[in-house]
Design goal:
It contains 13 helices and 13 strands. It has 384 residues and is an alpha/beta fold. The strands form two sheets. Strands 3-2-1-4-5-6-7 form a seven-stranded parallel β-sheet, with helices on both faces. It has a six-stranded parallel β-sheet with strand order 10-9-8-11-12-13, with helices on both faces. Helix 4 runs parallel beside helix 5 and helix 7 runs parallel beside helix 8.
């Protein structure tokens, strides 16, 4: 079987789940349609860019662009879909590569390519992963576009039940919906020699991750615990305010903020960390997590999780078994949870870490999840 994968930008190193599908889905029998191709994308005929700047347009098409966008918005709920030369290029590309199925990796890409998939007679699926099924749903035109898309699809996937429920709350449903997390490589993310008192956080320094709350909670939770140390890896608009807060608290020797690090260095940090801390919240614009890959990686690495009752996180972390969960924005509760994790005895802490690893291996092994995705697609096509 061969798949066409639809993405926004390729190559994007942070989209490990997309890159894995492109490299490994159906044994790598894949071609790719993207809005934009970067310089890192291979030039081998398997990749097509269909964004407005990707396809040469004649003068008439350039003049008609506003009209075409408006008509697409009326018909499909979005002006994103390829039209004119881009649409013809996409159809020619699909005819040349003859994929058996199309997989759009995010909601907006699904909206854009569904009419073309239907015109080509190729079954299409859409994968929802986070903001595409949370903050975007605040817009009426997005809800309308998704509702128009659903009958055009053979099925949908989401990384958490939370996201499917979010979609259903605005009337966006499909009878062939499945929850399949992105997963992690449980053979690479493994426990190492844990550093006593080590707390680790990974992710962009943005509102959704509450880095300043995490720093303040650790500062209180670690009082009287000289071995406790927090490392938070990532960058973003709140990194400098976070560094200023650490300096203000006088905790430069106990809190490390190294910025973004290569994936291998992140993996090494996870192997040594005892506790993984991530206070995820719903951002003011409605943006949420799906099921954070970092939490799945931390569980595979045998970390005790301290997080929030947010999005798909409770689908992964069980209170008092693999970690601790508190309500969003509950700073006092989060401080208590961090303190409890830091002061937990060696034996119970080791048991929680073992269970976290066990859950990751059973539920988040990306090799097994890839097989499951392939089976769901194949069984749907067989029924059709």
């Amino acid at each position: 079987m061969k798949a066409a994968i639809v993405v926004g930008t390729y190559y994007s190193p942070g989209q490990t789940f997309v890159n894995r599908h492109i490299d490994h889905l159906f044994g790598g029998a894949v071609c790719v349609i993207a809005d934009k191709l970067t310089a890192e994308a291979p030039v081998d005929g398997r990749f097509l860019a269909v964004g407005d700047d990707a396809t040469e347009r004649n003068g008439l098409e350039r003049a008609l662009r506003p009209v075409a966008r408006g008509l697409n918005h009326l018909r499909h709920g979005s002006s994103r879909m390829p039209w004119g030369a881009s649409r013809r290029a996409a159809l020619d590309f699909l005819k040349h590569h003859q994929p058996d199925v199309i997989l759009a990796e995010f909601g907006p890409q699904g909206v854009a390519l569904a009419p073309i998939a239907n015109a080509a007679g190729i079954p299409m699926f859409c994968y929802f992963r986070g903001s595409d099924a949370s903050s975007r749903l605040r817009h009426d035109h997005v809800q309308r576009a998704y509702r128009k898309m659903m009958p055009r699809l053979a099925g949908v996937f989401a990384v958490s039940q939370f996201l499917l429920d979010n979609l259903a709350s605005v009337g966006v449903t499909h009878p062939n919906g499945h929850v399949i997390p992105s997963g992690v490589d449980v053979r690479r993310f493994v426990p190492g020699d844990k550093t006593p008192g080590s707390v680790l956080g990974i992710g962009r320094f943005v509102e959704k991750k509450s880095p300043l709350l995490t720093i303040r909670a650790f500062a209180e939770a670690a009082q009287g615990l000289p071995d406790a140390h927090l490392t938070m890896i990532g960058d973003g608009e709140l990194l400098e305010p976070a560094r200023a807060l650490v300096a203000e608290l006088g905790l430069g020797d106990r809190i490390s903020l190294p910025g973004a690090l290569p994936h291998e260095e992140v993996r090494a940090h996870l192997a040594k960390a005892e506790i993984y801390a991530q206070h995820s919240v719903t951002a003011n614009n409605g943006n949420t997590e799906g099921l954070p890959t970092s939490i799945q990686e931390a569980m595979a690495a045998g970390c005790v999780i301290v997080s929030t009752q947010h999005a798909g996180i409770p689908e992964a972390v069980t209170q008092d078994e693999t970690g601790y969960l508190v309500p969003e924005h509950d700073a006092a509760g989060y401080t208590r949870a961090l303190r409890e994790a830091l002061t937990l005895g060696a034996a119970p802490k080791s048991e929680m870490a073992r269970k976290a690893r066990e859950v990751a291996m059973a539920r988040f092994d990306n090799a097994e999840l890839l097989i499951r995705l392939e089976k769901e697609i194949a069984s749907t096509l067989a029924r059709r």
